[in-house]
Amino acid sequence: xxxxxxxxxxxxxxxxxxxxxxxxxxxxxxxxxxxxxxxxxxxxxxxxxxxxxxxxxxxxxxxxxxxxxxxxxxxxxxxxxxxxxxxxxxxxxxxxxxxxxxxxxxxxxxxxxxxxxxxxxxxxxxxxxxxxxxxxxxxxxxxxxxxxxxxxxxxxxxxxxxxxxxxxxxxxxxxxxxxxxxxxxxxxxxxxxxxxxxxxxxxxxxxxxxxxxxxxxxxxxxxxxxxxxxxxxxxxxxxxxxxxxxxxxxxxxxxxxxxxxxxxxxxxxxxxxxxxxxxxxxxxxxxxxxxxxxxxxxxxxxx
Length: 303
Known about the structure:
Structural class: alpha/beta
Helix content: 40-55%
Number of domains: 2
Number of strands: 6
Shape: extended
Distance between the termini: 48 Å
């Protein structure tokens, strides 16, 4: 719509502008951009997943950097005529695996949506590794050089795996804490220890489908859970796409939805759980749940 308006503003007839800027051209452009983004070196080896929601590390390629050599070796050998069992199938697998992800509205790099292609990627990398090892074995006759080559490859593998685990264990928990809903277990554990003191516990939807966290960590009886969930289906009748968009659905004394602080802050015998940004300044906080980096994740407040 913006491009069409810009063209008309500069002087292009509206009917002509519509031919260049319409739903079809928008969908086609988005599809092509998304599709190619998943085939880019940035996605595979440097940038990686665009979000950490599914436990992936943003800013780190979905493949080890050294695998680029295996990929190139395999594809080069294939182009030069070397026969690989099933290689055409694996390449086709990669190309069609990207289609569902490319059709979404996201800007690409949603790694979870293209995870289906990873087996074929790994097989192609393995082909490349085999070719490299075969070359060293058959073409390098100097034993010292051959051994140095093997040790060099092993060294690169060990360093790559070690740096990944260092990143995953010691850095990802800090950088990905918010995306991975860190702190929900601590919230449920603390509230469970004091819930008998309150008639009602209001939980913000910012915990992301908060009823799941309470049901899981409190080991909620499935029969009791299903009894309450029958009333939740009304969210569809109200035109919402997700249950946590609906305000006021219950699970026992827990009520989930939007936190209207101007009203809740005057309530009695109530406990409120939400993110710091949802509360009024200088509010008295009963308990703060922190992210691994020390910043507050959730406030628990009793007005």
